[in-house]
Specification:
56% strand, mainly beta, 794 residues, 48 strands, 22-stranded antiparallel β-barrel
Length: 794
């Protein structure tokens, strides 16, 4: 029997070889244009075969020795709608086939990878995948990842520290530890990097950002309960360059200067290329008027020479290298070097430990990855192997200089001052992350009914962090190891109905048992413009320290620290979502909406339990609670009229509640409501393109009321309390004009704008050294004017 199978396989291979070896002398040539301009590096393929090529730098292509008969020729490229033409090929004849491709202004037909771990069009994937590309980041003048993610449905980015200014991403009402951030599909964004990393990744490093909300992202493992953000770095598709300089004036009191550069080089045959980026940023302190609490209980609004926005200096560079040795193979390497220095607190030039109150951070981050893919079996099978990692070195300081009024006698003060100067609370952190994995995809054309793409893979993730502040007797010594295997079936029963099922098994070294996380998603397509989706998935969070657990904050006249409960166990989730997606295109306009409902149940949900005080300040312990529920609705609206006016918007109504009330500050009433979590929030971007070289945009971000804890700087005068922040909206505007420089085949764009036009900014910050730095709730910036220029290839 084995011999028969072997002989049959040999005969099939020989037959296939003889068929492809036949010369037909049938050729196709032509060009590809968009808006009457040639488009380079467009993929031209004979549908249903492995035959294909790309247009050259002049937008022309040639296919030779093609099989005779009727075929479909497809032209497709990122950012354009795919175009097909029916052709009939005859032996010994050459024909000309030209394409006019149309730009996909709403990106509805773009390929995405994050939802299924395989490339699918957005309208064909059973998981909703939202995308913001480099042009979207430019429209809102985002200089980093943090600023760009504010303009995505179901997402919120908040500033969580008055002193160091770290930001946190919230997805579908869940905090930062519930969201997984990937770089090129790999989880090298470690819990430590999560503290400041969204500000450290510059916008010009990004090609596009793919966002999957909710349990549909369970295939990515631990911490993907709230969702997954996949940052895809710039990839070389054509040779070009871009240099941009922007200067910002923060409320007339501080400057923020950003210089960026990008260049892409591609070989003439398109088989190799490199994309490089560089970024330099320098920002001053900014001090906003806050509240000074007097000894008689009265308050005074004034500046205090303590920053609300920290001083920042960063340098970043990196790139992507692509090699395609054969049409069936691809090797991709990416690397990034991120350096950042930030300092907040007393605005002085002294060393950090000599300031009355300060936080100082110096990060050196190296990250990179290597991916290899080979397609075979007539492109029905592919094998992928990958390796990714990061290494972070961090020096930091968080401390208060002893104040005479905090001690009963001069001798006690002198002793504390001497101890502080001999052993100031400096710390050192070392962190490295390593991931390796394999993935195999196979397409079954006739699987019972319809086609089925099977995906199977395994990966291993190691994260090691050593963090120590000897002065506070505080440290994190955490090594996490996670081995995982996953299996997925992407079954298209018909053009209208798709069933996506998957399961992932994780063995985490901090969890005694294997955790199995299944997922089921259904897609029904009604005609070409409506999709209905249902998704159920489970997930987990390991009992480990996450980003906010490693943040040392000022509160109640000291510093607050978080420790893990000895019996802490994993947190589990069940997530459900359902949505309808409608997009209708006519000759002049496109309009559409997405309405999604979501529900997530958390079992053994983590929460911070007050654990008293020590000589340095407040203590909290991370414990398992009885559970929690997050549920809500997200509405997205979008439209484009004649490529002149475009609207993108999203609004979320939701509730995040603990199953039972939890204590947030010792002595205060326990609350069921999640802290820092509004019940409604949203965004909108309205873009204008009235003439060819002129662009403008108006954007807004709305945040509803939130519940906060507020530690008093002096409990003898004012008690600790809960506060509810008001709702607020920050509007921004931008306008730009491009001057063409045809002699240099380049363009010069002059642009300017204003962020937070209404200058709505938090008005009840604490003043001076004993402030509660965690009590922040407003926009990340007060009113900020900016101007800049961009030189780029056309």
């Amino acid at each position: 029997m084995k011999k028969i199978v072997y002989m049959a396989a040999v005969l099939i291979c020989l037959s296939a070889k003889s068929i492809y070896a036949q010369r037909t002398d049938a050729n196709i040539f032509g060009h590809v244009q968009s808006n009457h301009e040639h488009v380079p590096f467009v993929t031209i393929a004979v549908k249903g075969t492995t035959i294909g090529t790309t247009t050259d730098e002049s937008g022309h292509y040639l296919l030779t020795n093609l099989p005779v008969g009727k075929h479909t020729l497809v032209a497709q490229s990122v950012g354009y709608k795919p175009t097909e033409k029916e052709i009939e090929i005859e032996a010994g004849k050459s024909i000309e086939v030209n394409f006019e491709i149309e730009e996909d202004v709403m990106k509805l037909n773009d390929f995405v990878v994050t939802g299924t771990r395989t490339f699918r069009r957005r309208t064909e994937t059973p998981i909703i995948v939202n995308v913001i590309d480099s042009r979207g980041l430019d429209a809102v003048q985002a200089c980093n990842l943090s600023e760009g993610l504010r303009f995505q449905p179901g997402l919120r980015v908040e500033t969580d520290c008055q002193t160091c200014g770290y930001t946190q991403l919230r997805m579908n009402g869940l905090g930062g530890g519930y969201s997984q951030i990937l770089v090129n599909g790999r989880p090298v964004f470690s819990p430590l990097i999560g503290l400041y990393g969204m500000e450290q990744i510059p916008a010009n490093m990004v090609e596009r950002i793919e966002v999957v909300r909710g349990g549909g992202s369970a295939l990515y493992g631990s911490s993907a309960i709230g969702g997954t953000v996949n940052v895809i770095t710039q990839i070389p598709t054509k040779s070009d360059y871009e240099v941009t300089f922007t200067t910002n004036s923060i409320n007339g009191a501080a400057t923020d200067n950003v210089l960026t550069a990008n260049t892409t080089m591609l070989s003439k045959n398109g088989k190799a290329g490199v994309s490089l980026f560089a970024n330099r940023r320098v920002r001053d302190f900014y001090d906003h008027p806050g509240i000074t609490l007097r000894n008689d209980g009265t308050t005074l609004i004034e500046k205090d020479n303590f920053s609300e926005i920290p001083k920042l200096e960063s340098n970043s560079f990196g790139g992507n290298l692509i090699f395609n040795p054969t049409p069936d193979q691809k090797l991709e390497a990416n690397f990034s070097s991120l350096y950042e220095y930030r300092y907040g607190g007393e605005m002085t030039k002294k060393e950090a430990h000599l300031a009355q109150q300060s936080e100082e951070r110096t990060h050196n981050i190296l990250m990179g990855g290597l991916d290899y893919q080979i397609n075979f079996n007539n492109d029905n099978s592919s094998f992928i192997t990958y390796l990714a990692g990061q290494k972070t070195k961090r020096n930091h300081y968080t401390g208060l200089y002893p104040a005479r009024e905090d001690f009963d006698t001069p001798a006690e003060f002198a002793e504390a001052e001497s101890e502080h100067l001999k052993n100031p609370p400096y710390g050192y952190t070392s962190n490295h992350t390593l991931q390796a994995g394999i993935q195999f995809n196979h397409r079954l054309e006739n699987f019972i009914r319809g086609a089925n793409v099977l995906t199977v893979g395994a990966e291993y993730l190691l994260d090691d962090i050593q963090d120590s502040i000897p002065h506070y007797r505080f440290g994190v010594d955490q090594t996490t190891k996670n081995a995982a295997a996953f299996l997925q079936s992407d079954w298209s029963l018909s053009n209208a109905f798709t069933v996506l099922t998957g399961v992932r098994a994780d063995k985490h070294n901090l969890v005694e048992h294997v955790i199995v996380s299944p997922r089921v998603s259904l897609l029904y397509r009604l005609k070409d413009y409506t999709q209905f989706r249902l998704t159920w998935g489970t997930g987990f969070r390991a009992p480990q320290a996450f980003d906010t657990d490693m943040h040392i904050a000022f509160a109640g006249g000291g510093v607050s620290r978080i420790s893990l409960a000895p019996n802490l166990k994993e947190e589990r989730s069940n997530s459900f979502s359902g949505s309808v997606n409608y997009d209708k295109a006519t000759e002049r306009h496109i309009y559409g909406f997405t309405l999604e409902g979501f529900y997530t149940r958390l079992n053994d949900a983590f929460h911070l339990q007050p654990a008293g005080r020590d000589n340095f300040g407040e203590l909290f312990e991370k414990q398992n609670g009885p559970g929690a529920t997050v549920k809500g609705i997200t509405l997205e609206l979008r439209a484009n009229y004649n490529q002149k006016v475009q609207l993108e918007s999203g609004f979320t109504w939701q509730k995040s509640r603990h199953a039972e009330a939890v204590e947030n500050i010792e002595g205060l009433e326990a609350k069921r409501r999640f802290l820092r979590t509004p019940d409604d929030y949203g965004y909108a971007i309205l873009s204008f393109f009235p003439v060819k070289n002129l662009n403008a945009s108006i954007s807004g971000v709305y945040t509803g009321k939130m519940l906060h804890t507020k530690f008093s700087p002096n409990e003898t005068i004012q008690a600790n309390e809960y506060r509810t922040s008001p709702s607020f909206t920050e509007f921004s505007a931008k306008v730009g004009y491009t001057i063409e420089l045809p002699f240099f085949d380049s363009g010069l764009e002059i642009f300017g704008g204003v962020k937070n036009i209404g200058n709505f900014y938090q008005n009840d910050f604490d003043n001076y050294r004993n402030r509660d730095s965690d009590y922040t709730w407003g926009p990340g910036l007060p009113r900020t004017f900016y101007v800049g220029f961009k030189v780029m290839s056309l």
